[in-house]
Amino acid sequence: MNISPRTKLVGLIGHPVEHSLSPKLHNTLYQKYGLDYVYLAFDIAPDDIAKAVEAFKTLSFRGFNVTIPHKEKIVRFLDWLDTEAAIIGAVNTVKVEDGKLMGYNTDGMGFVSSLKRRGITLKDKIVLVLGAGGSAKAICVYLLKEGVKELYIHNRTRERALALIKQLKRFFPGVRLDYLAEENIGDVRPHLVVNTTPLGMWPHTHLMPIENYDFLPGMTVVDIVYNPVETAFLKKAKQAGCMAINGLDMLVGQALKAIEIWTGVKMDFDEAIRILIEGDKFLL
Ligand SMILES: NC(=O)c1ccc[n+]([C@@H]2O[C@H](COP(=O)([O-])OP(=O)(O)OC[C@H]3O[C@@H](n4cnc5c(N)ncnc54)[C@H](OP(=O)(O)O)[C@@H]3O)[C@@H](O)[C@H]2O)c1
């Protein structure tokens, strides 16, 4: 890395940030693409967001990512919010331009773009989302924006899913949006199933978001967990003849969208994945 006075700064705020893969992911790509940018991570306590934002402006940062627990709280410090981020109510990417802060949510963008690049269309499709947390919300908004016909949500805490459905219905009134209890999951035959829960994540790799799911050949199944790269849920989906997509697609997809917002450079997804994965090994 060749840092000079001209090097442009981007970064991440979260609490904690020590396990974040983003600095390595971004800096590896900047280096390979010859972009004169450096990405730094900052552990910012919840009460210090205002100070961090002012510091980014003072130090002429081009932008920054936002992670847990600041994704919702950052919104009040922004001068502009894109439409989807406003519906989601959470921001993971901020662009700083002429002292003004603009907020985006690239989690949903990255998720959808990773499906599109595989030729998967979402218009008029039936989708089952497992989980109703922050990433589910971002994913659902972008799925609905793409024109899915029916969206079903299953979640451990029913009330949380119902609250999400109620909110989504306000913005996408024409779509069938329903909660599915575990015993009713088999009633729906979705084209796409998305796991947004941490079930199956290391070290509890034997867990699955739903046990004994009746995968059908031709379904697309996405697990946004990326550690391990192939979860037990994805493995079963693959064995049943489904197209199985792992969480690295979304992880890399959201980073590439952030890079595009900050630098204007549109990196090729496959090339980025090639840089970050060697054989079957994720390098970060
Ligand atoms: N690939 C990527 O780029 C990417 C991006 C973001 C997140 N992720 C991964 O996605 C996962 C979720 O992140 P998030 O930010 O959405 O988290 P979150 O807001 O905390 O939501 C977690 C969701 O998982 C459910 N859940 C958690 N533990 C559960 C359990 N033991 N049994 C059943 N359901 C459970 C929660 O259900 P309740 O409502 O009942 O609590 C909730 O719906 C994490 O593993 C994260 O690493 C990946």
Task: Describe this structure as you would to a colleague.
The chain is of the alpha/beta class. Helices cover 34% and strands 21% of the residues. It has helices spanning 22-33, 49-58, 83-88, 106-116, 134-145, 158-171, 232-239, 248-263, 269-276; strands at residues 8-14, 37-43, 63-66, 80-81, 93-97, 100-104, 126-130, 150-154, 176-179, 192-195, 220-223, 243-245, 277-278, 281-282. Strands 2-1-3-5-6-4 form a six-stranded mixed β-sheet, sandwiched between helices. Strands 9-8-7-10-11-12 form a six-stranded parallel β-sheet, with helices on both faces. Helix 4 (106-116) packs across helix 5 and helix 4 packs across helix 8. The protein is globular. The model has no long low-confidence stretch (mean pLDDT 95).
Q: Keywords for this structure?
A:
alpha/beta, Rossmann fold, 21% strand, globular, 2 domains, 284 residues, binds NADP nicotinamide-adenine-dinucleotide phosphate, six-stranded mixed sheet, 14 strands, 34% helix, six-stranded parallel sheet
